[in-house]
Design brief:
Layout: H1 2-26, H2 32-60, H3 62-85, E1 91-92, E2 98-100, H4 102-135
Antiparallel strand pairs: 1-2
Helix pairs in contact: 1-2, 2-3, 3-4
Length: 136
């Protein structure tokens, strides 16, 4: 319980400081540079939290870590398949201006194909769950 109260206090403090900085910005006291820097600080805190806490949780629950690793490996397989299927064409405007070079095109197509595969998988999982419920 002590940790939850500590985290809640830190969250409220960060939220309050963000609100104060926003009001000061709109009052013209604080520049946008300070606000952008504050956003970077909040982003760093969020990224650190997103990495550290799952690692701590996995260390405390190794059986759950195995399931998480299976999910990560599955995601990597989907991205690998998507990368293999993606093309690397260059795209130009009618004026001949380069819109996307080969690597940018490959990356964006990889993301789209991965999204389609995972979307189809999600729809398939929902259909499977409903049909298996009906057959019980």
């Amino acid at each position: 319980m002590g940790n939850n109260k500590l985290f809640s206090t830190i969250l409220i403090a960060l939220l309050g400081l963000s609100a104060v900085l926003s009001v000061l910005f709109f009052a013209g006291v604080v520049s946008e540079g300070l606000l952008i820097t504050w956003c970077y600080v909040l982003l760093a805190i969020a990224a650190l939290t997103a990495v550290v806490f799952p690692v701590l949780t996995m260390a405390q629950n190794p059986k759950g870590a195995k399931n998480a690793l299976i999910g990560v490996v599955g995601l990597l397989v989907v991205v690998g398949i998507s990368y293999a299927l993606a093309g690397s064409e260059e795209y130009f405007t009618l004026d001949g201006v380069l819109l996307a070079d080969g690597s940018t095109s490959k990356q964006s197509e990889t993301g789209l194909i991965a999204f389609y595969i995972m979307g189809a998988g999600a729809i398939g999982a929902v259909i499977f769950a409903e049909v298996s419920k009906m057959l019980k």
